[in-house]
Design a protein that fits this description.
Number of domains: 3
Number of strands: 12
Strand content: 5-15%
Shape: globular
Largest sheet: 6 strands, antiparallel
Structural class: alpha+beta
Number of helices: 19
């Protein structure tokens, strides 16, 4: 694909055309002093955009939504959602805009979406703005997740606006330019269902099929096939989160994508010491979305998706409920299969090993790590060295040496594949203390630590000399780590 200057790029408007009931035409507010903080050049090239053009004044204005290409129709998207279990019938893009769609070098349609671009009709009294710290967090963690092979939205750029944002204190403002396969959410379907307009609901489902799950169109019952596909995508996604110790923190239905991508990096974090009850979100006071609860939370969200789809599953609601229940019943088996396959790879277990043996090894290891307060990422990477003969590196992480030795004897007898392990067990993840250190410096105007951390976590499987502090768990301060959503 030939790269084009950002100000002359063509943006599609299929969402606005096909679903006008869910799209409010809107424009971003003009930032007083826009300044590019970080640009994702590989992603820009993938999208057919010229990085140098994006760095120009007009390119930066394009990235904050004020230099709108000819023919583009930016819109704020309508959706509803269950937030921490409570239904809100009208949420929508309160500080965001869909600029339009791009076709990437692989022929895939991708949304270009802004976050922090100013108030919209969905702002509910909010200022519609975003701060530098949370937007850089989304850039950093999204790129780390992409490098880990986890489906995710990605950040194209973060632009400082020159406008202060009032939160607990005054903070420097920023706009995030986000790229996604799409922004259809469970909450989008909940909104359509709440309107009572079955034609709108059907058109929305057909758009989702065409955009994200085209194989469903060939099924005998396309809308049930759509639901099955989303169930499978979410089961696979959450299993991948769990395998690397990622805690999303705000798994509301408006953050549950139809595409199966990770959406929204607000109060997210990575587990250090293995703790199934790890919960880092300052707004999740009851721990609804704690680490161990994420599979159940995804299943609950999919049940809400099923409720929204009922009119499309069967004309008789009782029969539709039966259909939805049968399909939703596939979630746990799909999740458990994805988790088991991922854990087999992390432990380097041979193909054909009995499922019960593999499951017991994984469960016993996780129990051992939790009882001993061992760092999840370090432990699995050290096991790769153990599979090559250097058992001490992993053994020294554990206080219960007898327990470790007994487990390791069972595991090593299976001749684990160390190379396979190193391909899936990262050396580096965005350690919470390092993320905070980098963001604090960046908010103060120094991006050096942020850029270094970004470089490290976007090559997560390559162990490099001199980067030992990035592989080490954070200090035990005795104070629980907390993150916020930045609103």
């Amino acid at each position: 694909m030939t790269a084009v200057p950002a100000p002359t790029v063509t943006l599609g408007d299929s969402f606005a055309r096909e679903l006008p009931e869910l799209a409010v035409p809107w424009r971003a507010v003009e930032p007083p002093e826009p300044r590019l903080l970080v640009l994702n050049e590989p992603l820009a090239a993938e999208l057919g955009l010229d990085p140098e053009a994006l760095r120009s004044p007009d390119g930066v204005r394009f990235l904050v939504g004020t230099a709108v290409p000819e023919g583009a129709r930016p819109v704020a998207q309508a959706y509803a959602g269950h937030q921490f279990g409570s239904f809100v019938p009208r949420l929508g893009d309160g500080r965001a805009l869909l600029l339009g769609e791009l076709t990437d070098a692989g022929g895939r349609v991708r949304d270009l979406h802004l976050k922090g671009s100013g108030p919209t009709p969905f702002s509910r009294g909010g200022d519609g703005l975003a701060a530098v710290g949370p937007m850089l967090r989304e850039h950093l963690v999204g790129e780390a997740m992409h490098a880990l092979g986890i489906p995710t939205t990605r950040s194209l750029a973060v632009v400082a606006t020159g406008r202060p944002v009032r939160r607990e204190t005054l903070l420097p403002g920023a706009v995030l330019a986000r790229v996604a396969a799409g922004h259809l959410r469970v909450g989008t379907f909940q909104y359509a269902r709440a309107t009572g307009d079955v034609d709108l609901l059907r058109r929305l489902a057909d758009v989702a099929i065409a955009r994200h799950h085209p194989a469903a169109a060939e099924a005998d019952h396309p809308h049930r096939a759509l639901f099955d596909a989303v169930v499978a995508a979410q089961a696979d996604l959450v299993a991948r989160w769990m395998l690397v110790g990622f805690v999303h923190g705000v798994m509301n239905t408006d953050n549950t994508t139809v595409s199966g991508e990770t959406l929204d990096y607000g109060p997210c974090a990575f587990v250090d010491a293995v703790d199934l009850d790890a919960s880092y979100s300052s707004v999740d006071v009851g721990g609804r979305y704690r680490y161990r609860n994420q599979p159940a939370a995804a299943e609950w969200n999919l049940a809400r998706f099923a409720e929204a789809l009922l009119p499309l599953l069967d004309d008789d609601e009782d029969r539709a409920v039966v259909v939805a229940t049968e399909s939703l019943g596939g979630f746990r088996a799909r999740y458990e299969a994805a988790w088991a396959a991922g854990m087999r790879a992390k432990l380097g277990l041979p193909d054909g090993l009995d499922d019960a043996v593999a499951g017991a090894l994984a469960d016993d290891l996780l129990g051992l790590l939790q009882r001993n307060g061992v760092d999840l990422t370090s432990a699995f990477r050290a096991l790769g060295a153990a599979a090559r003969g250097d058992v001490d590196r992993a053994r020294h992480l554990v206080l219960d040496l007898a327990g470790f030795d007994a487990w390791a004897q069972r595991w090593l007898a299976l001749a684990p594949d160390a190379d396979r392990m190193d391909r899936v067990n990262p050396v580096y993840v965005p350690r919470n203390h390092l993320v905070e250190e980098a963001l604090t410096a960046a908010v103060g105007g120094d991006l050096a630590l942020f850029r270094q951390l970004l470089d490290v976590v976007t090559r997560p499987f390559d162990e490099r000399p001199g980067l030992e502090r990035y592989a080490a768990p954070g200090p035990d301060t005795g104070v629980p780590y907390r993150t916020s959503c930045g609103t």
